[in-house]
């Protein structure tokens, strides 16, 4: 179609506006982004009109009726937030987060040997660290566990940091491939960056034992690797905040400088508030101050400053002894419910006479069960039973309830029968 030109006169100059097709085709070369596996599962669930559909894809806690939960500690914090001093509580959140992961009496806080900053949940904390790594170690790579949360790859890729993987999960045993993990740590170039899940590994639910963590830390020390922990589920593996931070504290005792991303989305039920913290340990207070200024500059150019309401809620919970104690009790209740559902699901599968080994369902910990279901079996669950999970077979145990356990177990039994006969 011929371009339509309109001549206008302004300030003695001539301007032409064009409605040509060429002027309107700036973004024709842009195609759709590949779907995130978690988002894809949720979208498919929402599009299903079946009243019997079950969502086992989302990683947010649900109660026995499958409904989202607002913790009582959050309700009490809400009541105290009105009229509070935003800036005072804001500074407290970072300090209390650091204590939570490194220990109340840790030298890290006592000697102010950390650079800490509020972040947009765990994702934002990881992204800030990835940018810090790129700026000051531009030739470095990040070693990610195989398997890991899919977004880890996106975060470091978009920060311009090359990614490698180290062996972690063993699909045969559905457990930790510890010897291969140690070999990969040993064979990586000295001074490499590694991302570690300190507890409730996502997506596998497989964590190293205390003794294995000590071996991993020892090998890191020999190789002078840098450990970066993504702490997304503190308290959700064992129900105990201290126990779930054991891996980080082992590395701390061994003299490592550490980076840690913390999120309060899952363990406080604040998924939509995007409250997190990034801390990076330093050799002294001067170094910590310089690193903090760098992190603040990075955050400033990305998003300016984070939202305040979630910050106030987390600060109130962590600084008020009564509310914090209530939070810890509620964490135990949530963890216990997930553990109970693991046992119930395994028992139902075994009652049905499945010849497959379902021991991993109860051996794994945290929010997720890495079921071992094949992609074609996951597809059958969607089409025939309206059960939704990510294509790799990761299912959220928070979506398993007393009322749907038998249905889920029967569906899994039906789609795995052929494999069980082999």
Layout of helices and strands:
Layout: E1 5-10, E2 13-18, H1 37-47, E3 54-55, H2 72-81, H3 86-102, H4 107-110, E4 114-120, H5 121-136, E5 141-146, H6 150-158, E6 162-167, E7 169-170, E8 175-176, H7 178-187, E9 193-196, H8 210-223, E10 226-231, H9 241-244, H10 246-253, E11 259-263, E12 275-281, H11 285-303, H12 309-319, H13 321-351, H14 359-363, E13 368-370, H15 375-385, E14 387-388, E15 394-396, H16 405-421
Parallel strand pairs: 3-14, 5-6, 5-9, 9-10, 10-11
Antiparallel strand pairs: 1-2, 4-12, 7-8, 11-12, 13-15
Tell me about this structure:
This protein is α/β, with parallel strands linked by helices and 422 residues long. It folds into two domains: 117 residues, Aspartate Aminotransferase, domain 1 (Alpha-Beta Complex); 248 residues, 3-Layer(aba) Sandwich (Aspartate Aminotransferase, domain 2). Helices cover 47% and strands 16% of the residues. The strands form five sheets. The chain has a seven-stranded mixed sheet, sandwiched between helices. Strands 1-2 form a two-stranded antiparallel ribbon. Helix 5 packs across helix 6. The longest helix is centred in the last third of the chain and has 31 residues. It starts with a strand and ends with a helix. The N terminus is likely disordered.
Fourth-level CATH superfamily of the largest domain: Type I PLP-dependent aspartate aminotransferase-like (Major domain)
Shape, principal axes of CA atoms: globular
Strand content: 15-25%
Q: Kindly state the mean pLDDT as a whole number?
A: 90
Distance between the termini: 63 Å
Lateral arrangement of strands in the main beta sheet: 4-12-11-10-9-5-6
């Amino acid at each position: 179609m011929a371009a339509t030109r309109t001549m206008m006169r302004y300030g003695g100059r001539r301007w032409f506006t064009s409605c040509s097709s060429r002027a309107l085709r700036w973004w024709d070369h842009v195609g759709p982004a590949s779907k995130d596996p978690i988002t894809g599962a949720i979208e498919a669930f929402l599009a299903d009109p079946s009243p019997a559909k079950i969502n086992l894809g989302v990683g947010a806690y649900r109660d026995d009726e499958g409904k989202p939960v607002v913790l009582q500690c959050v309700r009490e914090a809400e009541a105290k937030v009105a009229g509070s001093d935003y800036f005072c509580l804001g500074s407290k959140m970072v300090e209390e987060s650091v204590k939570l992961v490194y220990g109340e009496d840790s030298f890290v806080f006592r000697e102010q040997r950390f650079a800490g900053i509020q972040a947009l949940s765990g994702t934002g904390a990881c992204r800030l660290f990835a940018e810090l790594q790129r700026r000051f170690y531009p030739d470095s790579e990040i070693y990610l566990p195989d398997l890991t949360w899919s977004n880890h790859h996106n975060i470091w890729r978009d920060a311009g940091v090359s990614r490698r993987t180290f062996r972690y999960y063993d699909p045969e045993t559905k457990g930790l491939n510890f010897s291969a993990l140690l070999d990969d740590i040993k064979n990586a170039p000295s001074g490499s960056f590694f991302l570690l899940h300190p507890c409730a590994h996502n997506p596998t639910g497989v964590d190293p034992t205390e003794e294995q963590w000590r071996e991993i830390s020892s090998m890191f020390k020999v190789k002078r690797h840098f450990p970066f922990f993504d702490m997304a589920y503190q308290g959700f593996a064992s129900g105990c905040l201290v126990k779930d931070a054991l891996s980080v504290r082992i590395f701390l005792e061994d003299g490592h400088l550490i980076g840690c991303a913390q999120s309060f989305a899952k363990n406080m039920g604040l998924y939509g508030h995007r409250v997190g913290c990034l801390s990076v340990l330093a050799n002294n207070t001067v170094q910590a101050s310089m690193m903090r200024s760098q992190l603040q500059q990075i955050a400033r150019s990305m998003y300016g400053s984070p939202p305040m309401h979630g910050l106030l809620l987390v600060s109130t919970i962590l600084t008020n002894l009564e509310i914090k104690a209530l939070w810890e009790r509620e964490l135990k209740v949530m963890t216990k419910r997930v553990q109970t559902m693991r046992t119930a699901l395994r028992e139902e599968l075994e009652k049905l006479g499945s010849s497959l080994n379902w021991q991993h369902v109860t051996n794994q910990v945290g929010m997720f069960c890495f079921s071992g279901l094949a992609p074609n079996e996951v597809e059958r669950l969607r089409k025939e039973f309206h059960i939704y999970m990510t294509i790799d077979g990761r299912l959220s145990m928070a979506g398993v309830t007393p009322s749907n356990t038998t249905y889920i177990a029967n569906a899994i039994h039906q789609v795995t029968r052929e494999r069980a006969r082999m």
